[in-house]
Structure formats: structure tokens, C-alpha cells
Design a protein that fits this description.
Strand content of chain A: 15-25%
Helix content of chain A: 25-40%
Order of helices and strands of chain A: EEEHEEEEEHHEEHEHEHEEEEEH
Largest sheet of chain A: 5 strands, antiparallel
Radius of gyration of chain A: 21 Å
Low-confidence stretches of chain A: none
Shape of chain A: globular
Number of helices of chain A: 7
Oligomer: homotetramer
Distance between the termini of chain A: 32 Å
Strand order of the largest sheet of chain A: 1-2-3-7-4
Mean pLDDT of chain A: 94
Largest interface: C-D, 103 and 101 residues
Chain lengths: 352, 352, 352, 352
């Protein structure tokens, strides 16, 4: 259970970092979409490990193979099976963790839930799973070609970008390794992450995402509110601790007289504290939200912990891990956004 | 679509504030649960309008009638139908809004999505819907009798309670009308809401919720993470703009060496920045989260807006609305929490 | 669980024959459909008990009340709640069955599954539930106004109508109380049922259903084949033991050279042994299928059985039951057909 | 859509006969099941083509590779990904069919539904898909080790086995290539199929399936009746035209006084016309049902048909196809039965 997202545009996934492959099935993608395979691979490259000094140094090519649902470069309307082979399974990196519960990892909960755990990695809790989401999201993006989805790093630790997305040039996000479109801030963030890395520590941060050109009418008024689906998706990403859209937590401090988005006569709104969604339904304005990531649990410092027999043990991360997940999370946030919007777009179309 | 929540313990609802009744169907509640009907009504009373000077003065008894699924005071295991009659439908309160789009309401998105709108109220976007959730949640609470779910008001506007839930006596939440267990803070909050109300304005706030005694192992590692389901549910409540659990947005500023929850030898953790959930699965520690509510959109001040013909019009709220939704949202947050935990508990049991 | 049918056009129901009401929620009906309430009531009247000498003499008006989702006679696109009050709950009819397991009823399985049973009736196994389906189906029919759905009685006991639906005038189905469009056969069937009734016995039969003007392309090639969904729906009706479409069981005796439906140049087929569905997808030809009903289990003769303590007891049906369910099943078969086609039509539209 | 079956024990599949592989994901299989991989392969071998003179002569090893969800021979409770490579893709066999609509195949409906078709095979309508089901079913069988599922060929054309399953020794089903446990009948069936094959023709038949040792209480009383789920699954198999359980279509000819299953004092029933399911819920007696298969549409005789431009063309099957699908359908019927029972068993356990 729990390996699927979406209803009409649905991604179901499998795979652990230490098996032969991860992969998934995209069910419900409409027929006749001409796929740009380079664009899909480019999205995978944005997420892959080893891409810069501030990400894990683990190298994996993350090449996706499509097994079905595509004929002569077009989607056929049937289920698209795909896999990404695991080429870099350094099991020895993990051999010291056989029965140790790493703090703030899922080792303990896994063991208690399933009574069995593949100690060579995090099982389904491994961030490697997110490569599957990138594939699904990349295809969803191509289906939604008129809709623009752009995420970027808006904070690392206490470095909080003091500009809204409207003040930024989102085409510059990929110009630096931390994926912050403001160069001055980006440089500071990179320096901070690099410092933290040298300390053998990790640090949290925030990804902001903007979705533009969404048709009016996506989302349902009660339990399938568009922002609830986006929130569910974002809270599915490893290390995410919070989600807010529009005015978010800051909106709790405001009065209605300041918070209300007054209309222009062309039916746009003067402000957009609603974040492009009113009553759970898109209103045509930009949708924007923030996703909070905690610091990665694997640190290169010594920590005390326990093993599955209840013994106190000392451990130290030895694997190749990210000092900050936020830069690599940017394409993941976009991919899940695309999956949700694609699913809700199909629901919208069913009743138009 | 979108009128159901849950899979094995599922609530499906209907109803607008201006029809004859609202109601729902609870599908999947196990058989043999002895229901305490007074407790159910008490939860409805906590949510109902007109209960104090800081809530809407609209009076509705909100009496629930059960129509099926219960025999001799016990659940029979079959679907439980219920309804709450609408007794106070003052349509004239709304007659001036016939084709006006109220700012930051769902009027505009409803009209565009459905092409038809019952202008007498907010349709399914009316907060009246949440009475249905209270009924479902009250039954879920009785099913989950060993699990404690307590929510309370932790901020109103800039008044932010500077204590964690562990420093509070949660049995005192119902001692005041704002539902903040700290009396000093509660008095300040009540004063603030009353001031805002006199200005014809509204204000936002935050509800904190704590869930205790949850078995280890609820939640799935990928898309059905327990916190993602809780987040989805909370983001379904009207006026909610954000959700965070455990360290939340604050955790983004921390380093891994401070954020990791180290184990005690009894398998509890010394800290609980994880918020009782690791890798999407409950670890037996307290689950806690925050829900951000924006200020209510209906204000008693004049606002400019447009009507469905694109004319600029001036409007002023005349209905009986809440100056701050947070006090009445407290039981709603608990109800949805109970529904999610009940659903995930059944999934857990299926595979034990 | 199990009280819903459909995904995009979904009916969820509740109710026992001995509670205050039965009812349901239709979720996903598109907005703007002008409802003909008389037509809905007429469908209920076709199903209601007490309509002729060959049905149960129990009288129930079966008046439906709509509680939401309709404004000024049109669907609003939101969930439609409805209820049908139980007005004729003669509990004494059932008082003799308190803990007796009636043969071939669900009494025994209910008791074992739930550990609790409302002995005053069949609980959710009561055929009264089908009134809810009539309401859902009647609305689905109005949504599908260009699609014609006609069911009729094609056999009772050994009286098997020796004509295909093409040889019959389906507008004559309602001309007689057994709902067989062939008057000569109808008279024989009525006489047979009446004889069986006088013996205190019951008898089975078959309903044939024809669905015309279905667009090409409804249904999915693997698990959501259109005929599998129709079969699932029909097998949900009380007393149904079998389902076949197109050539059905008879097709097992044929050779491919005779069974294949050759094409005309206008893309219709010369024969239609496929029953309007090829590879699970509608091909534009008439869809037709048969539904097998066993004889009603409640007979007015003495039978030996056991009670919940394992005692042998003698029992005799005293309630007011149908000697043959088939005539009243005709509108039920149509209603479920309409629900399935509506659901699959919305799926089809989502990807067009 | 439509590539999944089940809710708590769910199989999702992909793949066409002419892509690199087919495969699937099993989601929800409980943790800790020790898998017998030979038993899984043996089930695949029962289904595979080329196994005898009365099946297609196409040879495919159908070797399954598991990619996740299994560690040290046991299920881990997470999603099990698997693939079966396509090794025998003789595209030239199909090159003559590029734009021809084969009669009673899904070519025409596919083209109309999707606007694109992989003319090298039947796409998702290919019976190759059923190898995926075998894998899912084989794992379900191992999860359900106390439940016995046995299917067999009970008719081919007009050769209808005149014994019930109780009169047969079901351990003898695999003793002959037609999979009929009665040797005399089996020989006749083999001869008939061989004759039909020599004529370049095909023939239909029936598979009977018996499920024993099912706990009392599986299935839900309304829309998730156990037999409705079984029917849905069976109607998902290629070429199936009908499903009946217990007394089936024959029961329509009976009277209640003969059809009712009277109880023994040990709560078993004297007869079992109910087919082990009453009110949609298993009663502990044997579940049995029949599945009707039409003759395969691909015949080796000349047929007139049309192409996608509406031209009349003459065609003749040249591929390697089965003269009768029934022998190879036997393990498929068992596999889908196991998937349904596993899913319903988990639902049952959730509420016990």
C-alpha cells in the first residue's frame, strides 16, 4: 500500500537502492503525446547524486529505460512501465549498520512495522525512490506543456531569500549548484552548505515552487482541494516537515481587511495571498507554495544510538550523503507538482 | 468527486448550508463499538456557531440523526448514514450577494468551475460542512479509545503562545472560549479577537494538535506517509494555509547534529523533533503538528469587488460570521486527526 | 467498505429496511443537468414493492428526498445527498426470526462476520438497498440522455423467451407486470409466477439488458474492461448468480470461424456476438447481456434450519416477499447499467 | 487507468508483447512471507505458450525477475517490482496487419480510443499480459497457504464434462495437456482441439474453479460482494464472455424450495447451491464458479475484413495462436482467484 499517487494520472513505484533496479508504472497518461526523452533525462540529471561539491559524491547515471506504453516516440495511452538500474550499490558502505538504528532515520520504524529490514539501505525510505517521481513528473510536464512549473531554493539554514518569486528571474535557477535564482544569495548558500559539510554536519532549507498558467477550475471544494493534494505530495518527499501556500503561516498574523485579494475588473486579483487557489479550486492566478526540509539525518560525526537488541552503540555516518537535500529537492518538488496538476487536469476535463 | 476521505475508514459527505440538511456516510467502522451519543453531540457543540461572543452569533442546534449502521447502541459494521438538519437558513442574509464575487471566497472559482452557484451560501465551501467531519471524527475517536487527540489554539494574530504542548495542561483547553490551555494567553487572545470583531475585521491564528499513544507502525514509507495524510486532511479545512509537524519550518534552520532524535535504551527518543513519525511511520512518540488559518474572508467593512458581469461593486458583509475561526477549528482538527488515525490503524491491522 | 460503486461518477449508500431511512450520496455528477424529478420517481415506482399480484404485497411509497447538490432544478456539480424514509417497518413480521438462520439468506454470514445482527431484517443485504441504486441510476440516465438502456424479463423458470432483443419491441416492456415485451410469453410467465406463489414457493429467472448508442471507446483494455464493470455491478444485485454478455456461455460451444464478427465497410459489424465490446472497449454496436437470478430464499413453506445456538428449528416465511424477483429487478439492472456507463463516460471524456 | 486490481493486495501491470518486457508491481503483500521461487516459475510454465500440441507453438521462456520487495528470500512488506523479458518478438509475423482491423479483436476499438496503435501485437489486449497476473497470483497463493485454489477445464465446445467438482480428483488436472481431471473426457477434448486446429479454426470452452478452506466472513454485503469481485476478475481475462457461481444460470430454472441450502447442526449446509457465498460473504463452504471462454478470434482461415481506411481486404492469420485458450486459462483463473482472495482476506483481517 501507499506506493501510488494520483487517480486518473497515476504513478505506482517500486525499488530499493540495493536491489537490481527501481522503477514504476505511469497509468493514465493520455495517448499521442510526443515524448522528448532528452528532457526526461535532463530532469533525472538535475536530481542525480554526485553533480556538485554540495551534494553527495555518490555517482549514479540514473538512466531510465521505458518498457511499454510508448510506440514510435509517442505515448499509446496504456500503462508506461520504466526502470532505472542500480549501478552503484556499494553494500559495504552500509555493512556497519546491520542492526543499528540510525537516529531520525526510518530504521527503527521499519523494523517494528515489518519485522524485516534490508539493512543495506533505507529500503523504500531511501531518497533514491525520488528518481522514479522525476520520470513520472517529466512525462506529466510534457503532457502539461502550457503550464509552467518552477521551483528553486529559497532558504538554507538561516539564509532566507528576502525576495518573492515575482522579484526573481526564474530562468536563472539552474545557473548555480544550489538552485537559487539570486546569484548573491546562491553564493552565500553554497558557502554555508560547504562549511556544514566540512563539519561533517547537515543543514535544512526551503524550496519555493511556482505554477503558472493553470486553467481556472482545477481542484474540488471539499477533500480534494488542489492545495491539499499538493501538500500531500510535498509531504511525501523525504525530510519534509512542512508545507504552506499563498500567505502560509505568515497569513495567520494578518487581518482579513489586509489579507483579502481584491478583484480587478478582468477577474484577476490585485494581490495573491490566496496563492492561486480559492476554496480549493485554482483561480487562474499563480500558484505558489513553500516546502520545508529538515537537515539530513546522516551526519559524519559520531553519534550514540542503539541497536535492535537495545545495546547502546556509537556510530558515525560513512556513506556518501548530502550535506543539504534542498538543491536536489528542487526538481523533485517540480516533478510531484506536475503529477498532481496532470491528475487534476484530467479530472477537470472529465466534467467540462 | 472529492467528497470522501479515507480508504478503510471512510467518510463521504454532502450538503450546503441552505438546503434541508447536511450529512454523510461513514463506511468501514468496525462492528460492535458501543457508541456514546452524548460524546458525539458534545463534539458538535464544541464546533457549533453561536457558542460565545468571539464566534458567529448564528444559532444552530446541530443535532445529528443517525439513520443506519447502529443497532441497540452498537455499530453493526455496515455503513453509518447520518444527517444534520439545517434549521437556520436565513436566506435573506445572503440575498444581496446574488452575483457578487466576494473577495478571497470561492464564489468566483465555483462559478467558473461549475457554471452554476447557489448564491445563498458558499455551497460545499461553507464551513458548515465541517459539522459532518465532527460526526465522523467523534465516532473514530470512540473506535480509538486508547489514543488521545488534543488540539488547542496556540496563536491568534501576533499573539503566539511561547510554550510547547509539554509545558501545558491540555485538560484546560475547554476552560475558556478561545480554547487555549494557558489562561493568561487565552485572555489576551479573547481580547484581541473581540477588538478585531468590533472593527468589523477578522484575524488568523494557529491550532496545535497532539496525538498520543499511537501504536508504532502506522503509515507507509512512500506516498501514504502518516504525516502526509494528516497534512492532506488539515489542508482540507476551510481557511487553512499551512501545515507543519515536528520541528516544522523551524527545522529548516537547524543542523543535523542538533535535529537528530537520539535514542534511549527503551527505544523512546531523548528529543522528538521528528514529531512522532519517522520515514512516514509512527514511532510511538507523541505526534504533534500545527495548522495555520488565515483570517476569515468575510469582513464587516466595505470592500470593492466585481460581480459576475464584470461590474465594479461595493459590498459589505452582513451575515453572521466568525471574527476568528481558530477557536471553532480546534474540534475540527481533532476530528480529522481521528479519522486519519482510524483509517491508518485499520491498514496497520490488516497486515499485522 | 464496499458501499460505493464508481470512481468519477460514484454512488455511496447506507440504510437498512428497519431504520428510519435509507439513502445515499452521488458524487461526481456534472453540473448543469436539468433534472426531471418525475422520471426519477417513476423509476422508483417501477421497483417498489406492492405494485402487482406477482410481487410482494408490502406497500412502501419510496419517495426520494434530495438534500443537496441541486439548485433551481439543476445539478450543481457537488455531491447529491438523498434519503428515502422507511414508512412500513412491520418489525413484528420478523420477530420470529430473532436468532434463526434462514436458509440461503445472509443471516449466518452476517452473524459470523460482524458478531452483531439486526434481526428485524436483512441489514444491508435487504433488497430495499436497491431503491438507492434506482435513484443514482435515474440521475445517471438523465446525464446520459442520448444513450438508451432497456432491460426486460427474458426467462422465468423454464419459460425462456426464444427471441433475441432485436426481434422484440422494447417499448412494450412496461405493458405487463412481468416486464416481458412479448405479450404471449408475458402471460405465461405471470401465470407461472402466480402458481408458484400459491404453492408458497419462489422461482428464478433472467433479465436481459440492451444498451444502445454508446460512444466508441468506453472501457479500458486490462482490468477496467467495460463488461467487467457491468458484470461487477450486476453481480452486486441480490440473488444474482451469473452474468454473460454477447454470445455468453453459448459462445463456448462455437468455433472462431462462426463467432467472429465480420466488419461492414461503415465499421459496423455484420453480427454482434461480441456484444458491443471488443477487448473491453465499446465498439459502437449494441451492448447486451444477461443476468441470472436464483429463486428468492424466503418461501412460505416450512423449512428446517438452525438457530445461532445450533438448535434445529422449524421455520416458515411469514413476511411479505416476492415469489420471483425478476420483474422488479428489471429497473435495477437498468439503474446499475446507467451508473457504470456514466462513470466510464466520464473517464472517456477525461482523456479525449 | 485500469491497470490495477485489488485495494490492500494490489497488482498493477504494464507491457506489450512487442516491447522489451512486461511486468508489474505487487503492492500490499505482507512482510515475512518466505517465497518459493520454483513454485512461481512452475505457475508461469503452466501458462506459457508452446507447452503442447494444442497450444500456440510460440516459444517463450517467461522467466520472471524480481526487482524489489524481497530480501533474503522473504517479502519485506514493500512493493514488489518484477519483469518478464520479451524474448520472442517476431515482428514479421504481424507486419501484414499494419492497418487491418482483425475481426473480433481489439484493433478497431484501440484505434478509435487511442488514435494510435502498435500494430505489431494486440498492445495491452495481448494475452501475454496474463503472465503478469500469474506472478501476482503465485505470490498471493503463497500468502494464502491454507486456502486451496483449483481450476480445470470443464468443457470444450460441445464436450461438457458431466460431473461436478466433487466427483473429480482435482490432483489429476495436470496429468494431461487439456487440464481436465477426467482422463476419458480429457482425451476427447484434446482430439477435438486438435481437429479444430487442423481446420485452421478455434473453439471455446469453460473453466471451473474451486476455492476451499476460505474463512467465513470474506466479502462485503453491498458492492464488494466476494462473488462480484471474483466475477470482475474473471471477466478481465481475454476472451471471457460469462461468469456464474454456485447454481449459476441453471439456478434460474429452480424453485426456492429446491434451491435453498439447508443447514446441518454443525453450521455447514447440506447442499451448496449458494456456491460458498451468501449475501456476498463467504460461509465456509466451497466456493466454485465457471468462466466461459469464446473461441480465439485469430483463425488460420481466410476472412474478409476492413483496414483503417475503410477498404475491404482479405486476411489470414499467420501468427502462432492457440486453437483453444482454455487449457492455458486454467492457471490464469487460479491466479486471479488468489489475488482476489488475498485482497479480501486483508480487508477481513483489518476489521477482525
Amino acid at each position: 500500500m501507499g506506493n501510488s499517487i494520483g487517480n486518473l494520472f497515476k504513478l505506482t513505484t517500486f525499488g530499493e537502492s540495493h536491489g537490481p533496479a527501481i522503477g514504476g508504472i505511469i497509468d493514465g497518461c493520455p495517448a499521442g503525446i510526443i515524448l522528448d526523452f532528452d528532457a526526461i533525462q535532463m530532469e533525472l540529471d538535475r536530481r542525480k547524486p554526485g553533480q556538485s561539491k554540495i551534494t553527495t559524491q555518490r555517482k549514479e547515471p540514473d538512466h531510465v529505460e521505458f518498457l511499454s506504453g510508448i510506440f514510435e516516440g509517442k505515448t499509446t495511452g496504456t500503462s508506461i512501465g520504466f526502470q532505472i538500474k542500480n549501478t552503484n550499490q556499494k553494500s559495504k558502505d552500509y555493512s556497519h549498520n546491520t542492526n543499528v538504528y540510525r537516529p531520525s532515520h526510518a530504521d527503527y520504524t521499519y523494523d517494528k512495522k515489518y519485522g524485516i529490514r534490508d539493512h543495506r539501505g533505507g529500503g523504500r525510505s531511501s531518497a533514491r525512490e525520488t528518481a522514479n517521481w522525476i520520470v513520472g513528473g517529466a512525462i506529466a510536464k510534457q503532457f502539461l506543456q502550457d503550464i509552467k512549473i518552477n521551483a528553486y531554493t529559497s532558504s538554507v539554514g538561516n539564509l532566507i531569500l528576502d525576495k518573492t518569486y515575482r522579484e526573481l528571474d526564474l530562468t536563472k535557477t539552474e545557473n548555480n549548484i544550489v538552485r537559487c535564482p539570486d546569484k548573491i544569495f546562491a553564493d552565500k548558500m553554497i558557502e554555508l552548505i560547504d562549511d556544514v559539510r566540512k563539519q561533517g554536519d547537515t543543514i535544512g532549507g526551503i524550496v519555493t515552487c511556482v505554477i503558472q498558467n493553470v486553467p481556472i477550475g482545477l481542484g474540488e471544494p471539499v477533500f480534494n482541494k488542489l492545495h491539499a493534494a499538493l501538500g500531500h505530495a510535498m509531504l511525501s518527499i523525504n525530510a519534509v516537515k512542512g508545507f504552506e501556500y499563498g500567505s502560509g503561516f505568515n497569513g495567520t498574523k494578518m487581518k482579513g481587511s489586509n489579507h483579502n485579494d481584491l478583484f480587478n475588473t478582468d477577474e484577476t486579483t490585485k494581490t495573491n495571498l490566496s496563492g492561486g487557489i480559492q476554496g480549493g479550486i485554482s483561480n487562474g492566478m499563480d500558484i505558489y507554495f513553500k516546502v520545508a526540509f529538515k537537515p539530513v539525518a546522516t551526519i559524519m560525526q559520531k553519534q550514540n544510538t542503539i541497536d535492535s537488541d537495545g545495546n547502546l552503540v556509537e556510530m558515525q555516518g560513512k556513506g556518501r550523503h548530502d550535506p543539504c537535500v534542498v538543491p536536489r529537492a528542487v526538481p523533485i518538488v517540480e516533478a510531484l507538482s506536475a503529477l498532481i496538476i496532470a491528475d487534476y487536469y484530467l479530472h477537470y476535463k472529465a466534467r467540462k
